[in-house]
Design brief:
Strand order of the largest sheet: 1-2-4-3-5-6
Radius of gyration: 15 Å
Number of helices: 4
Helix content: 25-40%
Order of helices and strands: EEEHEHHEHE
Structural class: alpha/beta
Distance between the termini: 41 Å
Amino acid sequence: MEILSMAYFARPLGAGPFPAVVLAHHLPGWDEWYREITFKFANHGFATLCPNLYFRSGHGTPEDVAVKVRGTGGIPDDQVVGDLEGAVQWIRSLPYINGKVGIFGTCSGGRHAYLAACRTPGYDAVVDCWGGRVVMSQEELTPNQPVAPLDYTKRPRLPYPGPVWQ
């Protein structure tokens, strides 16, 4: 595993080509669990990138930075989508990628993964685990989160069979 300036990156041994995955971390932040899962995905054959989506919020322990993020109403959706678009562009530039890139996230990272898959070209699959605030009422919308992610479901940028409740 390699720690880039603001990302964890791990890849399988060998020449590849490998599928790739971008991990969108949860609100507890860019923490030990995400370092471990970055390595685990690589151990299972994926080139894996986990960017620190909170790096603009300051330095400190993941817990301290998460408190700052919560205090400001969360990371702006447009900022997260831009960072995850940069992540998919970077990982697709690697010479040992097989052309397939997914995005995986848990909790708020699941929400962010869903947003990125709907709004960003370049992802071939999305896994949203427990994505909070994917469904939001008009009263829950904020300047940082101006559109409910579910509202983007009508126009995802990747193959999508439709909501499971239809």
